[in-house]
Amino acid sequence: MSIENVFLEILPHGGGCMKLKPITVIGGFLMGLANSIFGAGGGIIAVPLLEKSGLSKREAHANAVAVILPVSALSAALYLIKGTVRLSDASPYILTGIAGAVLGTVILKKISPLLLKRIFGIFIIYAGVRLLTK
Amino acid sequence: MNIIALLVGLFSGIAGAMGLGGGAVLIIYLNLFTDTDRLTAGGINLIFFIPISLLAVTIYAFRGAVKWKTVLPLAAFGLVGALCGIYLADIMGGEIIGKIFGVLLVLMGIKETFFRVAKDKKE
Fold first, then answer.
1. Domain locations in chain B as residue ranges
2. Is A49 within 8 Å of B74 when comparing Cβ atoms?
3. How far apart are CA A6 and CA A23, in angstroms?
4. Coil, strand, or helix at residue B36?
5. Is B21 close to A72, i.e. CB distance below 8 A?
6. How far apart are CA B110 and CA B113, in angstroms?
7. What digits encode the pLDDT tens for the residues B73-122?
8. Exposure class string for B80-97: b at 16+ Cβ within 10 A, else e
9. Chain A with chain B: Cβ pairs closer than 8 A
10. Alpha helices (H) in chain B, listed in sequence order
């Protein structure tokens, strides 16, 4: 589906009228807000929002990345303009990050979402406690 | 460039592509194991995420897995939130943001690990 068709389908005059749900408006706003304050976390908010929109858990995980990409890009641009961060600060992590991302899209097809959540959950509990006691 | 940074990049990329918040992995590393400023760490993570999510989204889009009609409206309101968030971040400052982030991580971790198990098992 081309991007023009996508917009035509979203706009009311382009065939089927799409009503905006409050969860899309409020949830989307809060997701963007949190993502730019913390520099992370938008994806985690996007997943349940997408599930509420009728996507399966697996679909929600994949689509959350698509939701958060433009949002993160805007935040990153603003951080760069303000001088809070320089491109060179991020460069050491990017190459292996890309390799990890390819691996991630493959793993997502095979692994159980429940196991995924558990592993990740335990990791962030540990990290959160460490951050608070730092 | 050290081996730890490379490994952190790898794991962040994996988690990021799975919509798990790879961000959390990189930010946690920067905050706990380096002396990077809190807001700078957020900025690094945001930049880091762009090529990775671009790649992941391209792969998912080719598989036909991206539901644009659901994604685009949500992203649009996310952009508005992101604009406001930049100003709020300045007002709040790194220290407070770091503590709130820590609390959120613990809460999120507990939820991800222990709750909604029955619903997840169906899939």
1. 1-66, 67-123
2. yes
3. 21
4. coil
5. no
6. 5
7. 999 999 999 999 999 999 999 889 989 989 988 998 888 788 765 454 44
8. bbbbebbeebeebebeeb
9. 405
10. 3-17, 22-33, 38-62, 68-92, 94-114, 117-121
- What mean pLDDT is predicted for residues A114-126? 83
Distance CA A60, CA A43 (A): 10
Tell the residue number behind the tokens 């951050």, with chain if given. A131
Q: State whether A58 and B123 contact (CB < 8 Å).
A: yes
Chain B contact present for A8, CB below 8 A: no
Distances (CA, A) of B62 to A1, A2, A119: 10, 12, 28
Beta-carbon contacts of A85 under 8 Å, excluding residues fewer than 6 positions away, are A76, A79, B39, B40, B42, B43, B44, B46, B47
* Residue B64 φ/ψ region, left for φ over 0, alpha for ψ in the -120 to 50 degree band, beta for the rest: left
